[in-house]
Write a structure and sequence with these properties.
With about 260 residues, the protein is α/β, with parallel strands linked by helices. The chain has helices spanning about 20-25, 45-50, 65-80, 100-105, 125, 130-150, 165-170, 180-190, 215-235, and strands spanning about 5-15, 35-40, 55-60, 85, 115, 160-165, 195-200. A seven-stranded mixed beta sheet has the order 3-2-1-4-6-5-7, with helices on both faces. Helix 1 (about 20-25) links the parallel strand 1 and strand 2. Helix 6 (about 130-150) packs parallel to helix 9 (about 215-235) and helix 8 runs parallel beside helix 9. The chain is globular, with a radius of gyration of 17 Å. About 45% of the residues are buried.
Amino acid sequence: MINDKKVVVIMPAYNAEKTLEKTFSEIYRGIVDSIILVDDNSHDNTKEIAKNLGITTIVHKNNLGYGANQKSCYIAALRENADIVVMLHPDYQYTPKLIPAMASMIAFGEYDAVVASRMLMGSALKGGMPLYKYISNKFLTMFQNLFSGKSLSEYHSGFRAFSADVLKALPLGECDDDFIFDNQMLSLAFYYGFKMGEISCPTKYFPDASSINLRRSIKYGFGVLGVSIEYFLANLGIYKSKIFRNDAKKLDLNAELEYYDI
């Protein structure tokens, strides 16, 4: 807990048995009140390891996708009355040691959301990010900043923190169930006027770290371009796609979640 704010770490997981325990071991428990993992129907022992580590574990009966996994994570965190929710991938690509800093940036009222950026201070290439991913990241970020009028160093990090107010306000129930969810979420946070901060984050690329293949990367890239244009048009009041409409669905806090017991 920081400044009387309850901090909950969520981990959207899929086949993370090789890296979960190492990721978990570096979470500083002094300020983290609860850890929740949602297993998206993994084919390995992710859920057993999570449960043995004492992590609150939720298991999807079917593979629903990365975005759907996050929705379950946020619903579970809000049900635990979280004030601050930090999303951390359990693949050890991002360092958990930044959680206290990210949570503090929200707890003391400076920001409503925080992105751990791999692009600040040249962390991405130093950590082994493939050159084509680096170039794609820079291009998509430039495009999105141009159409949003913002100046984030990257929109594609999977390490973020949000206040509960952000999670309750955004129509995340309308967002995609796949990887474009991340990008839609940040665009919606800007659209709703929330303050976004960044912190430099070292990253590690290695065989056991999760990564989407080239085909899905291309699909994601086109999705980012689409979200950027949708945001631009909605901001001008010309056209509002389903996620930018006033009646867009928020998270269903009464949704059924399947808790795992060994």
